[in-house]
Amino acid sequence: MAEQENIIVSTQGLTKIFPIGERKITVLKDINIQIRRASFTVICGPSGSGKTTLLNILGGIDRPTEGKIFVAGQDLTDKDENFLSDFRCSHIGFVFQAYNLVSTLTVEENVAFPMEWTRKPPAMIAQRVSDLLKTVGLEQRAHHFSAQLSGGEQQRVAFARALANDPEVILADEPTGNLDLKNAQKILQVFQLLKSKGKTVIVSTHDMAIRDLADQVLCLDDGKLAGNDE
Predict the structure, then answer these.
(1) How many C-beta neighbours within 10 Å does residue 215 have?
(2) Nearest-angstrom CA–CA distance, 129 and 131
(3) Cβ-contact 10, 39 below 8 angstroms
(4) pTM of the prediction?
(5) How big is the chain by its Cα radius of gyration, in Å?
(6) From residue 91, how far is each of 88, 217, 229 by CA, in Å?
(7) Strand-pair category, 23-31 with 34-36
(8) Quick one: which of 21, 24, 33 has its CA closest to 67?
(9) pLDDT of residue 216
(10) Please, are residues 141 and 78 in contact by the beta-carbon 8 Å criterion?
(11) Distance in angstroms (rounded) separating the CA atoms of residues 55 and 57
(12) What ranges make up the beta strands (E) of 97-152?
């Protein structure tokens, strides 16, 4: 029982099929995984193997065609979009490869947004934004817009935003895929900090430096789980 309580993410027979015209493409097939609390998990595999789709399902952005998905004690399989939106905002932090910052908001406004959604007190939000921007080394950029930032800086803002509501699970999709070596190393430092703080982190990546941090490596190949190294 204690071991089961230590599992924060699990899937049972997870399958995802996308209709493409008259065809059906199976992107994930019968995925069964368990991820422990306070662990660092890397999802690897070639392009098109289903990594991003798996992350989106784990985060409640997408739904499985078949199977079950459990995150932080909740069965997300059949929940409606209102529940999933609130759940994502409170329990899951996303870092997308394309950053997905709101271009009309400043850095501090982007980081504050998830906390405003959950109606945190303004003073608490201001302090949290300040602390997070210091954590990612961007306190001097608080009043800049995303167009005024480098790709690496935008990615670090995305991390600060993902951490805003102190989520139980952090999901990151190829977070260093668009970055040069210098900026990738700064993102690696953020991951090292998250791991030292005992966060549950799940990362899709080809970056071997990030993979070296992993407690568990899940390898996908053509939509199937090809390996699970712990």
Answers:
(1) 15
(2) 5
(3) no
(4) 0.92
(5) 17
(6) 5, 22, 26
(7) unpaired
(8) 33
(9) 95
(10) no
(11) 5
(12) none
What is the torsional sign of CA 160, 122, 169, 98? negative
Please write the tens of the pLDDT for every residue from 42-70. Answer: 999 998 899 999 999 999 999 999 999 99
| Residues composing the chain | 230
Domain at 2-100+169-229: CATH code: 3.40.50.300
Encode 80-102: b = buried (16+ Cβ within 10 Å), e = exposed.
Answer: eeeebeebbbebbbbbbbebebe
Q: Which two tokens stand for residue 139?
A: 């306190």
Is the Cβ–Cβ distance between 187 and 95 less than 8 Å? no
Q: Sign of dihedral through CA atoms 66, 201, 91, 162? A: negative
Q: Which residue has the tokens 């390898």?
A: 219
Contact 76, 87 (CB under 8 A): yes
- Phi, psi (deg, nearest 5) at residue 66: -140, 160
> Is 215:198 a contact under the CB 8 Å cutoff?
no
